[in-house]
Amino acid sequence: MLTAVLSGFGGAIAAPWLHRFAPRYAGWIAALLPLALMIYFISLVPAVAGGEALRFSYAWVPSLGINLSFRIDGLSLLFALLITGIGALVLIYAGGYLANDPMLGRMLMLLLIFMAAMLGIVISDNLISMFVFWELTTISSYMLIGYKHEYEKARKAALQSLLVTGIGGLTLLAGVVLLGQVTGTLEISDMLTRGEVVRAHPLYSAILALVLVGAFTKSAQFPFHFWLPNAMEAPTPVSSYLHSATMVKAGVFLLARLNPVLGGTEVWQLSLTAFGGATMIVGSFLAVQQTDLKRILAYTTVSALGTLVFLIGIGTDEALKAAMVFTLSHALYKGALFQVAGSVDHETGTRDITHLGGLRAAMPITAAAGMLAAISMAGLPPLFGFIAKEVQYKATLKEPILIGVALVTNMLTVVAAGLASLRVFFGQPAHTPKHAHEAPLSMWLGPVVLALAGLGAGLLSAQVGNALIGPATSSVIGKAKEIELLLWSGIEGAAGQALALSVVTLVVGVGLYQARSIFGRIAAAAAPLAPWGAEGWYQRIVDGMLALAAWQTRMLQNGYLRFYIGLIITTTLVLTTFMLIVGRVAITVPADWADVRIYELMVALIILAATTFVIRATSRLAAVVGLGFVGYGTALVFLLFSGPDLAITQFAVETLVAILFVLVVYRLPRFGNLSTTGARVRSAALAIAGGALMTLLTLVALASPTESRVSEFLAENSAPRAFGRNVVNVILVDFRGFDTMGEITVLGVAAIGIYALLKLVLAPEHDEHKAAEAPSGDGVPRERAETIDV
Amino acid sequence: MHSLILATATRLLLPLMLMFSIFLLIRGHNEPGGGFVGGLVAGAGFTLYAAAYGVSQASNMLRIDPKRLIGAGLLVAVSSALLSLFLGLPLMTGLWYKEPLPVIGKVGTPMLFDVGVYLVVIGVTVTITFSLFEAEGE
Predict the structure, then answer these.
(1) A176 partner at 20 to 30 Å CA-CA among A101, A350, B19, B83?
(2) Domain boundaries, chain B
(3) ipTM
C-alpha cells in the first residue's frame, strides 16, 4: 500500500526524463502507472464490498501518535478508483493537448504528484498524514494553475487559489489538532467510534467551524467559491482532473469521512445545508450567465460541490447515498465535458460559445462524447446522471425548501448542459480562429471512455450500487447498509414524486434554455455589483495585508543595518532583563580563577585586541580582517573547551564570510565617518549593555543545575545505538535528524531567495522583451518582474 | 582581477580541499567533521576557483547547476529517511549495513542523510557566491 501511494511521487520524478526520451508517447507511458493502480484498487473491490476495511500502518512519528496508516473502506475505494481511473485518462489527454509544449514533462510530473497526494488524502487513516497530503494537493494545484506562468492572469489565479485553500488548510490543521486532543487519537478509524464524545464536548462548535472552513475553501463553497472559476487559467487537463473530478471534492470527502464523528447535530445540518444550498444556487445561476465554455463548466462544478455538501448536510441515509451517487456521476460527466471543452478550444482556437456552433460535423467523436456527457449532466435516462438526480430528489422530499433549492439548481444545470453541448455542436457552423477538425485519439479517448462509463453505470446501476455506492454509503453512515440503485424504480410513492420533479426540471430547463438570452441581460445588469461580491472582498483583504506589510517594512526595515542590529539587541535586552528580574534568577560569580590556563587568557586577549582594532579601523578591509581574528579566536575557544565540530564549522564559516566580504567590498561606497559623537556614544552604550547581558546570561547558565539528562542520554547512546562516536554528528543526522532536514530545506530556500534577489536587481530592463512566448492561448504579456503579483 | 599566484595556488588547492571535504564527510560520524563542514570546505574550494578563473570557467568545471545540487541533496536526504518505512520501521530509523566497508567504515542511512546535507551545503554556498561574483562582474 505504501508502494501504491509513493509510486506516484516516484513516477513524478521520472516523468521529465520520460518526456525527454519519448516525447510523443510520454502521456501514454505515464498513464500506465495510474492504470496499474486502478487495477490494483479494482482487485480490492470484492473484499471491500463484502464489508471489510483493509488497513495498513507504517510508524512515522510514533511518539506523537502520527502514523502513515492507510485504510481502504467503501468511501476511500470509490474515490481511489476515480482518482486513478480519471488520472490515467487525463495523463493521456495531457500528452495530446500539450503535444508540442517543451514543458510537457513538467505537466506530467505535477499531475502525478497531485495524483499521489490525492490518493493519500482518500486512503489515509491518520488525520495528520491526511493533512500532509491535503497540503500537497494544494501546492500541486498552485503549480498546475500557474503552469503558464508567463501570464499574469495565471499567476494571479494560482496565488488566489493557494491563499484561499491555504488558509482553509491552516484552520483545518487547528481543527485536526483539537479533534486529536478531544478524542485522544489521530487515527480516523478510532475516531469514528468516538463520535458521541466529540459531539458532547464543549469544543465541538470550534472544531466544527475550523473543519468546515477547511472543507469549504477546498471545495469552493460560497463565499469561497470564486477561486475555482479563476483556476480555469490552468490548462484543460488540469481543470478536468483537479478542478472538477477530484481535488475540489477533497472537502466533500472530508465531510463525508467525518460524518460519523461530527455529523448529525443540528448545527451541522443547518450549516451544511445552508452553505451547500447557497453554493448550489449561486453556482448554477452564475454558470448560465457565462460565455466561456470552461467558466460555464467551472460554475456548474461549484454548484455540484454545493449539492454534495447540501446532501451530506441533510444527513439521512437516503441523502448520503445520493451524495455518493452524485460524486460518481458528476466526476464522469464533468471530467468528460472539460476534456471536450479543451478539445474544442484546441481545435478551433476559441472557447467562447458565442463564436462556436455546428461542430458536430467537424468533430463527430468529440461531439458524440460531449452530447452523451451533457445528457447525463441534464439528468436524462438511461444515463447515470438520471439516477443521481432521482435519488437526490428523493432525499429532499421531506422539506419543501430543500426541494425548491434542488429544483432551481437542476433546472439551471439543464440550461448549462445545453450551453456546453447543444450550443457548441448544433446550429449554424461558426467561423472559428482555427479550422476545426477532429481531435487526435489521445484527446477523444478520455471523453469517450468517461461518457460511456456514465452510460454503462446507468445501465448496470444495480451492480454499481452493490460494488461501489453501497460500501461507500455505509462508510459515510458509519454502519453497514444495504442499498438499492435502480434506473427505473416505478411511479409509486417517493419514486413517483421524484420522477415528477425530474419531468418538471427538464421541461422548465428546456424552456429556460430557449429563453437563455435573459441570463446575459441579468449578467449585464449585475455587473456593477461585482466589486461587492466575494472576490471583491478577497481583493480588499489581500490589498490590506500588502499595505500593512509595506507599512511595517518601512517602519522596521529601513535599510540601515545599524538600525536592525540596534533593534535586535534592544529587544533582547529589554525582554531578557525583564524575565531575569521577574524570575529572580540567581547569579553566582565563579570564585575560583586559579584554573584559568595561560593560553585561554591569551586567546581572550587576542579577541579583545582584535575587537578594539575593529572599532578603531579606518578601512573596511582592515575591519574585516579584525573581525576574522575575533571569529578565529572564538573558534579557538570552542576547540579548547572540547567542541571541535563547532570549531571546524566556525573556521569554515569565517573563511567563507571573508571571501564573501571581499566580493562585495568593492561595491560599497568609500569608507567615511558619518556618525555624530552622540550616535557613537549611544552605539557604544548599547554594545556594552548587550555584551554585559550575554555575560550575565552565561553566569546564569553556570548557576543553574547542570545535570541535564539529555546530553547524558545522547552521549551514552551515540556509539551503541547510532554507531557513531561523534555525538554532535550523530545528533545532527540521527537523533535530531528531523531538525536537520528542516534546516537544510530552509538553507536551500534561502539560497534560491538570494539567487532570485541578485538576479532580480541585476536583470537588465531589456530582458523583458525576450520573455518566452507562451505555448498557446491569448493571455496578457508578462509584466515587470519586480511587481508582486497578487 | 586575474592573479597568477591565486590561479596557480587554486589549481593545487582545489583538489586538496575537495579531498579534505570528502574526508571530513566520511569521518564525520566518529570524529570531528560531517556533511555540513565538508560541504562548507568544498563550497569554499569552488568559490576560490571562481575567484581565480571566473564564474563561467568554474561553472564549466562544476558541470552541474549548483541549484540542482540543492535539490539533489534534499532528495537524497528525504530518501534516506523514507527507506526505513519500507521495512516497517518508523520514518528515519537508522539502517546500517552489517559489515564495515574498507576505508569508509560502517555504512548506513544516517551516512546517506549526511551526504544529502553535504550536497545541499555545497549547492547553497556555490549558488550564493557564484551569483555574487556574477553581480560583481557587471
Answers:
(1) B83
(2) 4-137
(3) 0.87
**Residue where the block lists cell 467503501:** A74
Nearest-10 crossing angle of helices A400-420, A493-514: 40
CA distance linking residue A307 with residue A723, whole number of Å: 58
Half-sphere exposure of A784 (CA within 13 A, CB side): 6
Cα–Cα distances (Å) from A282 to A275, A286, A299, A303, A745, in that order, read 10, 6, 9, 7, 43
- A2 CB neighbours in chain B (<8 A) are 85-86
Helix/strand/coil for A322:
helix
Calculate ∠ Cα A453-A245-A55, nearest 5°. Answer: 90
- At residue B108's C-alpha, the angle toward residues B103 and B112, to 5°, is 90
Cis before residue A433, ω within 30 degrees of 0? Answer: no
- Stretch 90-129 of chain A: residues touching chain B, C-beta under 8 Å: none
B32 touches chain A (CB under 8 A): yes
Q: From CA A311, how far away is CA A318, in angstroms rounded?
A: 9
Q: Give the separation between CA A403 and CA A170, rounded to whole angstroms.
A: 35
Rounded Cα–Cα distance for residues A536 and B5 (Å)? 64
Instruction: Look at A58 and B85 and tell me if their CB atoms are within 8 Å.
Output: yes
> Are the C-beta atoms of residues A385 and A375 closer than 8 Å to each other?
yes
Q: How confident is the model at residue A782 (pLDDT cuts 50, 70, 90)?
A: very low
Structural domain spans, chain A:
2-521, 522-557, 559-730
Model confidence at A432: pLDDT above 70: yes
Mean pLDDT of A680-700: 89
Query: For residues A413 and A375, what is the distance between their CA atoms, to the nearest angstrom?
Result: 11
Q: In angstroms, how far is CA B109 from the centroid of its own chain? A: 17
β-bridge partners, B108: B96
Three cell numbers written together for A685 = 552604550
Select from A41, A86, A409, A35 the least CA-distant residue to A245: A86
| CA A404 to chain centroid | 34
Rounded Cα distance between A472 and A402, Å, is 24
